[in-house]
Design goal:
CATH topology of the largest domain: Rossmann fold
CATH superfamily of the largest domain: Putative sugar-binding, N-terminal domain
Radius of gyration: 22 Å
Strand order of the largest sheet: 9-10-5-11-4-1-3-2-16-17-18-15-12-14-13
Oligomer: single chain
Number of helices: 14
Structural class: alpha/beta
Number of strands: 18
Distance between the termini: 25 Å
Bound molecules: adenosine-5'-diphosphate
Length: 418
């Protein structure tokens, strides 16, 4: 293993892992701090749920993840944060970075959340989301991590005792040599961190090249684009055209949908015409075990011929009605439990290709199936790769889709890929 990554949330971890695969590194995403040896890969991404956790927990988990990565041979550590620099008032980015730097004996690290493809750019230390400053992008109203200041130098400085500087656009735009020189100067001025400007992918590639020798970096998945080439240049990573290769698929196929996002509802609408589809009615049956039992009965004779789709998803008025009846959280948990139970049944009946729609829903299903790691394969649509899931159950193909991701025909075309 060459690159070890610690991601502060699950979908961010997948996003990073997919980026590394695209750039030629075989990558496995590990769920939580691993308790055994790490899987074989060029890069490992350990997915934590530390973004909004109490800061002491976030530090402890991140250090444990770092230990596991170092034990696995990691030569560089990346602390993967959100491309909108999501932080709580207690920080979590600053304190976790400080703890990792100390463990690694690192004197200096850059922080760069830029992800131009997704509209995240950093200019003069200020983070933009599309055309808007972070603090005017809607992120200022985020329920857990409101971002009211777009000046990342200030945001980071408020989270760490260490001194934070800026690596400005004019330098980054001149390429890796100029960046290296400027970083040296910042370090000599007593800075421990530098917020790095980046507006284009070329900037991210230059930054990646310039920090080849840094023990650690902090950033979104964009900055990872430039890292694999460093390992190739050092003769440590062969040129691979099969980084996304997964074991051949066997077994039956199914889709489980728990997201009520517009994209998912539209994907279900199209899939209905292509595969047997069951829509759970939690208003009529507000009981997870009973809903799962209905689905299991419906599945009799339907598993095997082609993909089947079971959806909890419903349009806003039905979601509101269920929430009014049960409460928002109880409604969510009920359907997550029902779908997880159905997932376990599907696997017991030989399903080995499963697509799950919905972030929370995916978390519940992964937990129920005992999945511990995901080897990242080719993307079905941007941000949604097929993966090879291993853990306490049988190994299988799993695709986990955050609600709004994917084209309308995703559920249908997914099974042409795996
Ligand atoms: P997304 O990625 O779109 O946010 P999630 O799976 O994270 O999707 O969240 C969707 C939540 O909505 C889950 O907790 C799920 O159980 C819940 N849910 C699914 N269907 C319904 C429904 N018909 N009524 C109320 N809540 C629902």
């Amino acid at each position: 293993m060459l690159l070890g990554c610690i991601a502060d949330d699950f979908t961010g971890a997948t996003d990073l892992a997919s980026t590394l695969v695209r750039m030629g590194m075989r990558t496995v995403q590990v769920i939580g701090v691993p308790d055994g040896p790490l899987p074989e890969a060029d890069a490992i991404v350990i997915a934590l749920k530390s973004r909004t956790a109490p800061v002491g927990d976030a530090i402890a988990w991140s250090l444990a993840a770092c230990d596991a990565l170092l034990a696995g041979g990691a030569r560089q550590i990346m602390f993967k944060i959100c491309s909108t620099f999501d932080s709580t008032p207690a920080g979590n980015i600053g304190p976790v970075a400080d703890a990792l730097m100390k463990k690694l004996g690192a004197a200096f690290a850059i922080a760069c959340p830029a992800f131009p493809t997704n509209g995240r750019t950093v200019f003069q230390g200020h983070l933009f989301v599309g055309h808007a400053l972070l603090s005017e992008s809607g992120m200022e109203n985020h329920p857990l991590t409101p971002m009211t200041d777009a000046n990342l130098v200030r945001v980071m400085a408020a989270q760490t005792e260490a001194s934070v500087g800026l690596l400005p656009f004019v330098t980054v735009d001149q390429g890796a040599g100029a960046i290296r020189k400027a970083l040296g100067a910042l370090r000599e001025q007593g800075r421990r961190y530098a917020i790095a400007d980046a507006v284009t992918d070329a900037h991210l590639m230059a930054l990646g090249e310039a920090i080849a020798q840094h023990p650690m970096l902090i950033g979104g998945s964009g900055i990872a684009m430039g890292l694999p080439e460093n390992f190739r240049a050092a003769g440590l990573l062969p040129a691979r055209d099969d980084a996304a290769a997964l074991p051949a698929h066997v077994g039956h196929a199914a889709v489980l949908a728990g997201s009520c996002s517009r994209a998912t509802l539209s994907q279900i609408g199209l899939a209905r015409d292509h595969m047997p589809t069951l829509e759970l009615d939690a208003l009529a049956t507000p009981d997870a075990a009973a809903l799962a039992a209905q689905a299991i009965t419906w599945l009799e004779g339907r598993i095997g011929a082609g993909p089947v789709l079971i959806a909890a998803s419903a349009p806003p008025e039905r979601v509101a009605a269920l929430q009014a009846k049960l409460g928002r959280e109880a409604a969510g948990v009920l359907l997550e439990n029902a779908l997880s139970e159905v997932a376990a049944h599907l696997v017991a009946r030989g399903v080995r290709r499963l697509l799950v729609a919905g972030g929370e829903t995916s978390g519940a299903v992964v937990q129920r199936l005992g999945v511990q790691s995901l080897r990242i394969g080719a993307e079905i649509d941007p941000g949604v790769p097929w993966t090879w899931a291993e853990g306490s159950g049988p190994a299988m193909h799993l695709a986990l889709k955050s609600g709004n991701f994917g084209a309308r025909d995703m559920f249908v075309k997914a099974f042409d890929h795996a």
